[in-house]
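Customer ticket, subject: "Can you confirm the structure for Glutamate--cysteine ligase?"

Message body: Hello, I'm evaluating your service for our small team and ran a test protein. I'd like someone to confirm that this is what the system normally returns, since I don't have a reference to compare against.
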Amino acid sequence: MGESRHQLFQQFTANQWAGFRKGVEKEGLRVDRNGFIAQTPHPRSLGSTLTHPRITTDYSEALLELITPVFDTTRGMLDSLRDIHRFVQCNLEDEVFWAASMPCELDGDASIPIAEYGTANIGRLKHVYRQGLAVRYGRMMQSIAGAHYNLSLPDSFWRLWQDALGNQQSLQDFKSDQYFWLIRNFRRRSWMLMLLFGASPALDASFVAGVRHDLSRFGDDTWYGREATSLRMGDLGYHNNAQASLNICFNELKTYTDTLFRAIHTPWPAYEEMGTRRDGEFIQINTSVLQIENEYYSAVRPKRTTERGEKPIQALESRGVEYIEVRCLDLDPFSPVGVNESQIDFLDLFLLDCLLSDSPRIDDDECDRLDDNYQDVVARGRNPDLTICRSGERGRVGDAAVALMDRLAPLAEQLDSLNGDSTYRRALDDQRAKLDDPRELPSAKVLEAMEASGMGHREWGLEMSRQHQQTLRGEGLSPDVMAAFEKMTVDSLSEQDEMEQAENQPFGEFLEQYLQS
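Agent reply: Thanks for trying us out. I re-ran your input and got the following:
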C-alpha cells in the first residue's frame, strides 16, 4: 500500500498542489555580558509575555520564545522570524540572546528565574505550572532551548487526498487519522533528524555540577559526548521517571487523548507527598503524573489551536488535529535565527514522505525499538559503526540514512516539478553532503569550531551570540515593521492590564474549576 499512496500523490497537478503551511517557535536564553543567565525581568519593551502574539517566555523569565505566524513559504516564515529577532535584539540593551541549545553558565536551580505572567488567574496558572516543573524535575533541564517546527497541509489538499483514497469519513476525522499516520512514521524515522540536525554535543560544566554523567572533558569548563549528536535530547536533557510510565499511544487521536487524560488524572505518589501548596503558596497544579498536557515531552505532537481557557485535549477532541509540531530540533548555533532554509525545506519533504509511506500501527515492541534507535543516535550518532533496528533488522545508521535519502529523491523531484524550481532537490543534496562527510554534521561542526577557536562551550556560545547580535542589529528594521512591533508591545501590555483589572475570582477557586473542566 505504501507505493500506492505515492502513486496517488503523483497524480496531483501543479494547480491542485497548494504546498505546505508552516510556522516556527524558537527559544533562547537572555544572558548577561559574561555569559551568565540573565537575572533581570522580561524587558517591558518586548511587551506582555501573557498576551504578545510573537514574543513570550517558555519556562524561565530568561528563556525567550519567538513565534512566527503561519506562512505558505519557507522564505516568508524565515523573514518573519528574522524580523522578530531583529526587534528583540534592538531591545536587549547590554544582554545577549544565547545561540546554543545547551545553556550558558548557570549556578544551580536558584539562578534560573521562573517566568512571571502577571496577576490574572490565567497568568498565575502558567506560573504555578512552571513551579510544578521545578519541584518535579528541577529547573536545570528547563533552561535548555530548542526550535519547534509546525507543519500542516491546507484543506484543499485534504479534500483531494480524501477523494483519491476513496475515504468516507468527515473531513475532520480524516485529517486527524492522516496526521497520526504521519506521526507513526515520524516516530519510526526521527532518529534521522537527530543525526542531521543534532547540534548540542557539548555543554557548560555548570550544567552538570554535582551530577553523575559519562561525558568526556573538553576543557576546564566544558564537557562533551565523544559520539553524541544532541545532549539536549539525551538523558541529561528532557527526561524523567514518572513520564517513563505513561505509554502515551500515538496510533490514533482517541488513544492519544485517552492516555494523556489518564496521566493528568492519575496520582503519582512522589508528587502527592509534595502536595499542591507550600507555606500557603501553590507549588504545582495537581499531584498527577502530568499537571497538564504540555508537561509530556515528546519529539512530535499533534496540535490544535486552543481558545482562551481551553485545554489542548479538549481542543483536539472537539475540532481534531490541525497541525504537527516537531519538537526535537536543536538550535543551529551558526544561524542568527536558530534554523536555516535548507533544513526547513528538508523537513517538509521528510514529513510529506511520512504521510505518503505505509504506516502500520505501532505495537509495544516496536515502540521500544523506536525509542532505542532515537536514543542511540542522540548519544552515539557520530559513531560510524552504530547500528539501529529497522524493519526487524539491524544495520549501520549511515546506511539506513542513505537508504532513506534515496527513498526521498523521487518525491523531491515531483515537488520541484509541481513548483517549477529545484528547492527540494537542493535541500536533499545539502543533507546528503552530511552523510558523505560526517565532519559536516552540525554536532561535528560545533566541536570543530570550538576546538579551532580554543574556546569552551561558554566562551564560544557567547562569541557566536555576539556575532549574531551584531549582524541582526546591523540589519535593523524598516520603520513600518518597527512601528508594527511597537504597537504589538503597547497592545499586549494594555490587554494584560485589562485582564488583571477585570479579575475578581480567587485563584484557588479558578484552579478548582480549571481542574474540573
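A couple of notes from the result: The first strand starts at residue 21 and ends at 31. The first helix runs from residue 2 to 10. Feel free to reply with more questions.
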